[in-house]
Write a structure and sequence with these properties.
Length: about 325
């Protein structure tokens, strides 16, 4: 992503200033997660879309601020997720609630949501405010759906996809759309990039869930198998349930023992469900790529296409 290297460097510098607060505990808590790094995938997508749809291959000041806002919202959601999922580490670093406590981590997450809202309001664009505000509502909806369906062996793939939209894809869909609103793009372009972000987000979540079963903890940003342990039933498991009745018994017992998580992973790997889940992710990637290639004006789409395919390549 050579073309946006400067913007990504500036984004990291700006994020530190944007979360500044006189309360040392809140600042330390928020900074703890930012220090853990991350790929800055969401800001990168916003930058690349900005360049793609502009007449002079540029990124506006407002679009740069939107990228920062999006990353703050994402970070705030991780603070709360880590508490709900009882994760001790994130990207190899101790999670905020482990370093401090649950109360501080919740307040730090709330603080980041509040900061993002303040900067969002200062964009002075009501349509962007409406679009981005929807993300925070969707986060809550996704967490509730996940909680209700915890250890529920009757969950369908459709319910899993819906939950994944709320928890992951909504952020990308809405931020991609907001990028086009700031460009004063027409409604068709806005809807196109909303769908692009939605399909990209769904693919990202499915691949993440596959990696939870097949990847190494050091590459995941969280312990392997943590989804299963927390009762978060994902695509590979849901698809394998139709083939292996033993999985239902293990789920109903709520993975009481550490070895049952490994047993479940082995059973899933003995089926073709991981490949089936990957096929669903690939279908979403192809739908996203189709949107990019469907416009004559998007000829300069090589970098964003490569980033889109990168989502899928994470498990190859």
């Amino acid at each position: 992503m050579k073309s946006i290297k400067t913007e990504l460097k500036q984004l990291n510098e700006n994020l530190s200033k944007m979360i500044a607060t006189e309360n040392i505990i809140l600042y330390s808590a928020a900074e703890q997660l930012f220090k853990a790094g991350g790929k800055r995938l969401r800001p990168a997508i916003i930058f690349l879309i900005s360049k793609l749809i502009s007449t002079d291959n540029s990124i506006s000041t407002e679009q740069k601020r939107l990228a920062e806002i999006t990353e703050i919202i994402h970070t705030a959601s991780l603070l709360h997720d880590d508490i709900v999922d009882n994760c001790d580490t994130r990207r190899g670093i101790s999670t905020v609630h482990t370093v401090f406590n649950n109360k501080v981590a919740v307040l730090a997450g709330d603080f980041l949501f509040a900061q993002s809202s303040w900067y969002l309001a200062n964009l002075n664009n009501l349509n962007v405010v409406k679009t981005i505000s929807k993300i925070i509502t969707d986060f809550a909806e996704g967490e509730i759906q996940q909680g209700i369906k915890s250890f529920d062996s009757l969950i369908s793939v459709e319910e899993y996809i819906e939950k994944s939209f709320y928890k992951t894809a909504s952020l990308l869909a809405c931020s991609c759309k907001a990028t086009t609103i700031l460009n004063k793009s027409n409604e068709k372009v806005q809807n196109d990039f909303y769908l692009y972000g939605k399909h990209l987000g769904l693919a990202f979540q499915i691949i993440d869930d596959i990696l939870d079963l097949t990847g190494l903890s050091k590459n995941l940003g969280k312990p392997a198998g943590s989804d299963l342990k927390n009762g978060n039933l994902t695509a590979p498991l849901i698809l394998a349930l139709k083939q292996k009745s033993k999985l239902k018994q293990i789920i109903d017992e709520e993975f009481q023992f550490k070895q049952t998580v490994n047993e479940a992973i082995d059973i899933i790997k003995s089926t073709n469900s991981i490949q089936k889940a990957k096929d669903i992710a690939e279908e979403n990637i192809q739908l996203a790529i189709h949107i990019l290639k469907n416009k004559d004006s998007y000829q300069n789409n090589k970098e964003i296409s490569l980033l889109t395919y990168y989502i899928l390549d994470r498990i190859n």
